Amino acid sequence: MQRLNQFDPTFKDEVMAEPGGEHLLRCYSCGTCMATCLVRRQYPDYNPRRIMHMVMLGLRDEVLGSHVIWRCSACDDCYEHCPQGIHISDLFKAFRSIALREGRSPPGPTARVNERTCVACGLCVEGCPYDAVELVQKRVLGHEKTVAQVNAALCMSCGVCAASCRSASIDLVDHSDAILFECMQQELLGAEVAA
Amino acid sequence: MSENDDLRIGVYVCHCGSNIEGVIDTKAVAEYASTLPGVAWATDSLYCCADSGQNEIEQDINEHNLNRVVVAACSVRLHEPTFRACVSRAGMNPFLFEMANIREQDTWVHSHEPEAAQEKAKDLIAAAVAKARFLTPLDMIEVPVTKAAMVIGGGIAGISAALDLADMGIKTYLVEKEPSIGGRMAQLNKTFPTMDCSI
Amino acid sequence: MVDASRHPNIELLTYTEVKRVEGFVGNFKVLVEQKPRYVITDHCNGCGDCAPVCPIEVPNEFEEGIAPRKAIYIPHSQAVPLVYTIDLDNCIKCYKCVDACGKLDAIDFGQQPQQKWLDVGSLIVATGFDSFDPSEITEYGYGRYENVITTLELERINNTAGPTTGQIMRPSDKKMPQSVAFIQCVGSRDERYNIYCSGFCCMYTIKNALQWKQTHPDSDVTIFYMDIRTPSKGYEEFYRRAREMGIRFIQGRPSIITEDPNSGNLFIQAEDVGLGQVIELESELVVLSTAAVPRADTDEMGSVLNISRSPSGFFMEYHPKLRPVDSPTDGIFLAGAAQGPKDIPASVAQGSGAASRATRILNSDTWEIEPIIAHVWEDRCISAKGKKCGICATKCPYNAIIVEQGKAAEITPAKCHGCGACVAECPHNAITQLHFTDAQIIAQLHALLAHEPEKKILAFMCHWCSYGGADNAGTSHFEYPASSRGIRVMCSARMDQDFIFEAFRLGAGMVLVSGCHPQDCHYISGQQVGAARFDKLAKRLEKMGISPERYRVEWISAAEGAKYARVIKEMDETLKSLDPKALKEEIERTRPEFERRLRRLPEIPDVAEALEMTVPA
After folding, report:
1. 3-state DSSP call for residue B38?
2. Which of A119, B6, C14, C554 is spaced 20 to 30 A from C582 at the CA atom?
3. DSSP reduced 3-state for C214
């Protein structure tokens, strides 16, 4: 049995202080988000309604340590249908920001930048549908340099940045160009053998 | 009225939308009604209580010289006053009107045996027609009215009623069992949704 | 409250009870009894010098018993009227109050109950509700655990005019609790207690939680609910405000509350439906949202006023949708929670509605009532022939009949309410009831039993209750077999023995006689007149050879649709279980005796014609 008093009642305040977390408490657990969600079809354990309820109860570790907070693809289908007007993908960004700040890392691949080869052309910044990439001033190998930087809390691993990069300086962990090429080759080889 | 020759009873079998029509065949029932002694006119009607239904009854009373009206529809507790007023408008004494309850006491409780419900409807209409043969015109009794009211209970509902009555110039006795008025509401702190005080 | 006490058209009768109501619409006579306060209202100025010297302390009902009052008391400081009352059950007659009162000389131990009759044209019943006693639900520990309280107790604790001057404190240690849990639907939506939704508890709990959170933002406020119901204007917005303030809403009905005897804290166990898990919450205070229940004296009041109760126990309206403010009795209206749980806006609205419905009558010089009264055929009354009779007068619930030997019985139309008791009881068939004449009812009987009578249940119903019960079965769609055929009269008192004989003579398979429960009768004692007759009749019918199961008497209120359906169903089963051949034989065998007893029936005006009527198949 869960003891409610052992939970962290300040967790909801922490979430609400985060950009995107403001409207958490409007939720009355109707479940429209869950019924609308496309991600849920792929991952049956993903339930945005339940996660919001857990946040309100103060189940801090369970929420932040769970892989499900990284699942939201920010399609915003739920936002369109939410009767309380809660921007749920924003809420999930808030959960992730807190998780990252605490040193937790996303379970899946996010985009990474090769800062040595990055020329700061900004194509990735323009292309990212989630505003997850920005250009920052940084010291790279002892030199002050402008480079792209990915916010893992916002990155949805779509790969648009990697595809648009002219210097092949940005790709997805586990889905780098090299790995993808290898996969393709194997597919093609397999097809030849079969033929 | 004892001479059958003078009787001209009109019978109306109401569909009540699908409430009655959905279970029994009102047309067939109306046809049966037309064979009952004393019945001069029998028909079915989509909604007897609607404007159109009432107009039809009023017109028929004059056109067919009806001197009794039977409406087979809902409960007397619901629409007897409606139809009494309707026949009065056509110049008929309201007590020459009779009702057969084929909705609350028939189709709404026998929907699983429509044939038996239809037989019951025919019987109930035959009984209403039989009673109608012996109806006599009556006049309402006028009684005087004492211009005073009593409200029993001095809570918020009672106080509200008493104040309205009193403002309309009516002497009102507000009776409260307890030593003071206010009831439950006086016990409350603030009240929703405006959060103002209760007293 | 003060407006009501100062209005020139309102006469406030506090500490007063309604004892009897007589008369009819426009012309009610009400007997009220003012209980003795032992304080002269005109002398007492509410100074309050008497209470401090009184040595007696008892729990103050107004404060839900959480604060004391003296034996001489006002319920609260803003009481209207501001007049003290002595509670003689607890007073020890030390007379210290008399000394304290001094020159005002307001205390009078010689006061007696004062009764008086008042004439009114209309009555409005606004007797309110009681609060459910949660100690019945043992798993919540009310009465056992000090820190489990009711909403009304919280209202008093959290009230600046209350015993704690608005400082919230819990009973066990008089400290401000840092956490509070509200539990909804205590005694409502629960088959064990009351099945209805009490309506306003969601909102008053949200109100209390919100108020708590506003004054103590750091405390932990939780509401355990099954469904949150906020149907009126501005209510849903209020609920959202409560959520946004951080009040915790947990969907789940607690199964048990336990107490830590050392801390006085409570442990609440419930399934959190949103989480899909059982949780436990430790809380310093638990507040039970108790249901509104009918007042304990509803039955008593109902029989004084002749108005019946709904299945929920609250007073029943004439029609739930179309006449929600009218009682079934003309000229009597309902307002507030007496008719069903209601919040303040709805109570105020219904109060105004009732006032307006009453004014319809009160602003007219005269009011029309139905002429369905009794009528004497003078040539048939044996009193007119100089014989001694007067049975009609003894059966009339209204003393509306004057019988003088040598003269025909005389009905006073203004007093006759049209129950038909005299009509049915007259041994010489000398009285009839307009619009419910013998000929009319016999004509109905013949029509209903014209074909296959042995397969039918002939049901006599009274207008107010059992006919309403049959209607209620209809509106509730409670199915029952289609073998019954009903005849409506105004009161069971009108159900003449001859009608029942005639039904059996015609070969009815079954006869049901149904009417109001005694306390619901609309004609004071009409039902009793009928009941006595039906009792005797049962034995008589048996002697005449009618199987006892073919005759049944049932009292069915207008709210008892389920009972009406059940009675017909049972009778239908019984009828079907009878051997058809034996039944036919019984009908044939008993017919001559009924014919003998009914031989004088055709002498009644128009009845001969009704008896000859034929009905096509």
Report:
1. coil
2. C554
3. helix
Chain C residue nearest residue B163, CA to CA? C4
Sequence length of chain A is 195
How far apart are the C-alpha atoms of C180 and C209, rounded to whole Å? 9
The answer, yes or no, to whether residue B2 has pLDDT greater than 70, is no
Count other Cβ atoms within 10 Å, centred on residue C525. Answer: 18
- Mutation target vs C (from B49, B192, B195, B199; most C CBs, 10 A cutoff): B192
Axis crossing angle, helix B114-133 with helix C438-448, rounded to the nearest 10: 150
pTM (2 decimals)? 0.83
Q: Which domains does chain C have, with CATH numbers?
A: 2-122 (no CATH), 130-293 (3.50.50.60), 374-411 (no CATH), 436-613 (no CATH)
A111-194 placed in CATH 3.30.465.10 = no
Please give the average per-residue pLDDT across A121-133, as a whole number. Answer: 93
Asked whether the predicted pLDDT for residue C461 surpasses 70, the reply is: yes
User: Domain A4-101, CATH 3.30.1330.40 — does that match?
Assistant: no
Cβ–Cβ gap C278/A28 under 8 Å = no
Query: In one letter, which amino acid is C479?
Result: E
Residue A120: predicted pLDDT: 93
In contact, B36 and B123? CB cutoff 8 Å: no
Annotate C371-391 with b (16+ C-beta within 10 A) or e (fewer): bbbbbbbeebbbbbeeeebeb
Question: Nearest CA to CA, how far is C481 from chain B (Å)?
Answer: 7
CA atoms within 13 A on the CB side of C541: 27
For residue C138, what are the CA distances in angstroms to C141, C144, C148, C251, C282? 5, 9, 12, 21, 19
